[in-house]
Specification:
The chain has helices at 25-38, 82-89, 117-124, 129-137, 147-160, and strands spanning 46-52, 58-64, 67-69, 72-78, 92-99, 104-114, 173-178, 182-187, 195-202, 205-210. By secondary structure, the protein is of the alpha+beta class.
Length: 213
């Protein structure tokens, strides 16, 4: 078995320069996202979200992006989960998208707020019915005694909603929007001399700077 220190990969598929990047980082994100789709990246909307608790303890997990517009990046979760508690105490986060097939990474950071109840309702009812029921089944991030406890609660909730045409949105479930203050586009390059272009929002204007790899 290879040692971790011996694992290496040379990056040489693309390059990134101030001349070929769009001046709007949200539009640039969309371009890269669609290129990831075209490249067959599995779940290109998957990203790592880092949060921090009020005592400074960091945590991270992989989520799925469900929307992006001029106001930011949208994802959904249980508000009582660990991430939900972190965001209630310190409403800031950092997202990282990694598309290895294209040797690319995007890092986004900024304040996080809840989306409107109406927006959460629309997304919740677009999900498969069993996924909607699943939101009622799991007390996310809470300790449970066994897998069987979870499966028994699934049966209970399925029975509860069997005659319901519309499954209600739980009060503890909904969306968040991360408003980007910084967006970094990273492109792998040979010899570990990668391209890094950082957009920073300064008085509603995006400033572009190159960072050393």
């Amino acid at each position: 078995m290879s040692k971790f220190a011996d694992l290496r990969q040379e990056y040489k598929k693309h390059q990134l320069s101030e001349e070929n990047i769009l001046t709007d980082p949200l539009e640039q994100f969309r371009v890269w996202f669609h290129e990831a789709l075209d490249a067959g990246v599995m779940e290109p909307n998957a990203f790592t979200l880092a949060t921090v608790s009020k005592d400074g303890t960091p945590s991270a997990r992989v989520l799925l992006l469900k929307g992006v517009d001029e106001n930011g990046f949208v994802f959904y979760s249980n508000y009582n989960s660990e991430k939900g508690r972190d965001l209630a105490e310190k409403p800031v986060g950092s997202m990282v998208f990694l598309w290895l097939e294209l040797e690319r990474q995007v890092r986004i950071s900024g304040p996080v707020t809840k989306v409107s109840r109406e927006e959460s309702e629309i997304y919740f009812h677009s999900r498969p019915r069993e996924s909607q029921i699943g939101a009622w089944v799991s007390s996310q991030s809470q300790i449970i005694t066994s897998r069987e406890e979870l499966e028994k609660n699934l049966i209970v909730q399925q029975e509860k909603f069997k005659d319901s045409e519309v499954i209600p949105l739980p009060e503890y479930w909904g969306g968040y929007r991360l408003q980007p203050l910084q967006i970094e586009f990273w492109q792998g390059r040979p010899n570990r001399l990668h391209d890094r272009l950082l957009f920073s929002a300064i008085e509603n204007i995006w400033k572009i700077e190159r960072l050393a790899p």
